Amino acid sequence: MIDVDSDGAIRTVTIDRPDRRNALTVAGLEALERAVADADEPVIVIRGAGPAFCAGADLEVVADLDRDGAEEFARLGQRVARTIEDAAAVVVAEIDGPARGGGLELALACDLRVGTPDSTYGEPGVTFGLFGAWGGTVRLPRIIGEGATLELACTGRVVDADEALRMGLVSRLEDRPRTVAEELAETETDALAALKRRVRDDADRTTQERREAEAFGELVATHAAELDGLLE
């Protein structure tokens, strides 16, 4: 269900279950978590096989769960999303086709979301009596605001790529979304990692600023020769 390929600085993690629109089971979530956690490449791409990015949780699995099992399944999805968010690498969601429910929630945990013009986005859980519980109620308001989150989640409507870009749900639209990962791979990867850590830092402002200054000092020391070269 999860395929992993490495090409130099980029690890590509493909959710490969196109007959189910890449819906995730417990085994699929656990394999996705391992694929991200085990990466030592500076850039990770998460994508879906076939015409969809990811439909989220496999509803055939959900339908068989009791209350405790459902809570456990939600916590597993949340843990996978945190693993993506906390990865040392910069993680790019390459979204082509539908990103729904948990699939959208996993994309929200990525650092960059790059969609194609054919990508679409939605949180349809409310239409069948549920809601996304893989961290979406935390991350979606942070990214697009509370009002837009409530409108999207409470109506269950689907937005197209252009609207997703306007509302900040995706970072960019590209016919070939791999372009963004390739751009990242060509940068100084230690700077990428440091930048991600600083932006993701949720400490108090004084601590954040101290850590920012320390990280900047370390990078200047590391790249002193290159900086000198820029001045010649």
UniProtKB/TrEMBL annotation:
It comes from the Archaea. InterPro entries: ClpP/crotonase-like_dom_sf (IPR029045), Enoyl-CoA_hyd/isom_CS (IPR018376), Enoyl-CoA_hydra/iso (IPR001753). One of its GO terms (molecular function) is catalytic activity. Pfam families: ECH_1. The lineage of its organism: Archaea, Methanobacteriati, Methanobacteriota, Stenosarchaea group, Halobacteria. This is Enoyl-CoA hydratase/carnithine racemase. Belongs to the enoyl-CoA hydratase/isomerase family. SUPFAM superfamilies: ClpP/crotonase.
